[in-house]
Amino acid sequence: METSYIIAFDQGTTSTRAILFDEHGKVVAISQKELKQYYPQSGWVEHDPEMIFNDQKEVFEAVVQKAKVPLEAIKGIGITNQRETTIVWDKKTGKPVYNAICWLDKRTEA
User: Fold this and answer.
1) Sequence-separated (6 or more) residues with CB below 8 Å from residue 94
2) Of 5, 34, 2, whose CA–CA distance to 17 is shortest?
3) Residue 109: what pLDDT?
4) β-bridge pairing 46-47 and 27-34
5) How far is the C-alpha of 62 from the C-alpha of 23, rounded, in Å?
6) Exposure of 58 by Cβ count < 10 A (0-12 exposed, 13-18 middle, 19+ buried)?
7) Which residues partner with 29 through β-bridges?
8) pLDDT category, 2, cuts 50, 70, 90?
9) In this model, does residue 59 exceed pLDDT 90?
10) Which CATH number describes the domain made up of 5-108?
11) Residue 36 DSSP one-character state
């Protein structure tokens, strides 16, 4: 019988991770990449949405390759994100309107 896996995508404030678990909850492989933060003004903290998307694809591919697991064996996914970080997407183009405004950003205090 083929082993089943679950992959977790964790988009944190400072890094992007993919963690592959087997059917017993044991960690099989992890891939992680640092996330660059931007500080365009004092008190502002932003992330590049395209970079987040591309980094998620990269860590996914790396963790699957590291574990040598066929894609069809991955039966579920879990996604975590950065608290109240906000990204606005253009409905027509599918592209971000602006950088992600991070939960650490002081513009969201009010």
Assistant:
1) none
2) 34
3) 76
4) unpaired
5) 20
6) middle
7) 20
8) confident
9) yes
10) 3.30.420.40
11) P
Average pLDDT value for the chain: 94
Q: 31 with 17: CB under 8 angstroms?
A: yes
3-state SS class at 15: strand
The pair phi, psi for residue 80, each rounded to 5°, is -120, 150
Torsion angle of the four alpha carbons 28, 30, 31, 32, in this order, in degrees rounded to the nearest 10: 170
User: Residue 45: is its pLDDT beyond 90?
Assistant: yes
- Domain locations in the chain as residue ranges: 5-108
Question: What gap in Å lies between CA 56 and CA 32, rounded to an integer?
Answer: 9
- CA dist 81 → 13, 35, 75 (Å): 8, 13, 21
pLDDT above 90: residue 27? yes
